[in-house]
Amino acid sequence: MPNTSPLAFGLVFAGCMAPSVLGAPISGRFTRAGAQRLGLVTFLAGVTTLLTGIVLGSLPVFLMGSVFAWGGQGIAMSGDVRGLLHGSNPADRAPMFAAIFLISHSGAPSQASYRVS
User: Fold this and answer.
1) What is the average pLDDT value for the chain, to the nearest integer?
2) Residue 81 Cα to chain centre, angstroms
3) Which residues, other chains included, contact 59 with Cβ-Cβ below 8 Å and sequence gap of 6+?
4) pTM of the predicted model over 0.85
5) Given 13, 28, 38, 42, which residue has the most CB atoms within 10 angstroms?
6) Other C-beta atoms within 10 Å of 117: how many?
7) Which domain holds residue 92?
8) Is residue 1 part of a domain?
């Protein structure tokens, strides 16, 4: 039986968002390439743990995997953005961020595609 608890949904959402925010400070301690590598390895470990939680039907394992996956995503994204902005002057950064977010958000599914019964 699926878990329909609002608390579980809130924990999953927080497990996605909070660790991603911590990626920038962690990423700043590494070179751009090092942050990308660390982020991708952490993301892969997190997704593996997340999938294990799904297979086992364990919410705590799923949440732990979610924290690592999204933390890794935040680290990698921060390293990627630093790489894209490296050498640019401040006047060029706003259009570059606009292009980055336009491309990244255009790949996200629309909210209209989710149906709740």
Assistant:
1) 83
2) 14
3) 3, 8, 11, 53
4) no
5) 42
6) 2
7) 13-107
8) no
Spatial distance between the Cα atoms of 65 and 60, rounded to a whole number of angstroms: 9
State the pLDDT at residue 81: 86
Residue 30 Cα distances to 66, 75, 81, 102, angstroms: 23, 10, 13, 27
> CA-to-CA distance for 68 and 49, rounded, in angstroms?
8
Give the residue-averaged pLDDT of 17-33.
84
Q: Quote the tokens at residue 105.
A: 């958000």
- Answer whether residue 115 is part of any domain: no
List of long-range contacts for 46-51, beta carbons under 8 Å, 24+ apart: 46/70, 46/71, 46/72
Cα 84 from Cα 115, distance rounded (Å): 36
Tell me the three state secondary structure of residue 87: coil
